[in-house]
Amino acid sequence: MTEAAARGAASAAPVEPVLAPGRRSRITPEREAELYEAVLDLLREVGYDALTMDAVAARTRSSKATLYRQWGGKAELVAKAVRHNKRGGTADEVDTGSLKGDLHALTLKSDDCEMAQNASLMRALAMAVHGNPDLLQAFREHLIEPEMAEFRRVLQRAIDRGEVPADNPAIDYVMHMMIGGFAARTMIDDQPPTQSFLLSYIDAVVLPALGVRTG
What helix, strand, coil percent values describe the chain, rounded to 5? Predict the structure, then answer.
């Protein structure tokens, strides 16, 4: 059965199917986190294209119908798993009183090991995104747009404090700069991104572009 056919069958089912012994159906926050971790493990093992809902169901002892009802399909499940894996704080949780302090605090939410794992995962998913409109849409909805909203709130605080002029043209490109630095570290230097690299990149590139003194 194709994934599309499986989705249709799942959505058409009026009641929860009887699960095989050993399977679980209720989605609690703890169960959801466990499932997301299993999805990321499968992604690292086989990549996005080879990952199937059957494999997720088997790995997590879940009903495939439950997976489709909860997430709709593979693209949304993967995007939400990646989002859940990100440890960055929200704009409200990180308010140091300065733009430099806020950007540094957000960066320090992930240690070097997590950054290396995330960089490897994002490289693999970047290739899949280009050939999969559903995955691209899911990433925009669950990752890109929420991240951009958080950065806009951090920048708006800096504008309100008078740190950054409201008409600075670099404001619209902060997210591009941050993603670019993260991705280019491996492509250009053949090294994973680290806290030290990203903090120095923020001070040398992002803040000066916004007109913020770092000295």
Answer: 70, 0, 30
pTM of the model: 0.73
- Measured over the CA atoms of residue 156, residue 160, residue 164 and residue 168, the dihedral's sign is positive
Which residues are 24's β-sheet partners? 62
156 is written with which tokens?
């708006």
Residue linked to tokens 């240690």? 111
- The model's pLDDT over 24-39, given as tens digits with 9 standing for 90+, comes to 446 788 999 999 999 9
Please name which of 136, 212, 131 lies closest in space to residue 170, comparing C-alpha atoms: 212
**Residue in this structure with the two tokens 């700069």, named with its chain if needed:** 177
Judge contact between 67 and 17, C-beta under 8 A.
no
For 76-89, write each residue's pLDDT tens digit.
Answer: 999 999 988 776 55
Q: Is the Cα torsion angle 45, 50, 51, 55 positive or negative in sign?
A: negative
53 closest CA partner among 74, 34, 71, 26: 74
Percent of the chain whose pLDDT exceeds 70: 85
Out of 68-77, 108-117, 192-201, least confident range: 108-117
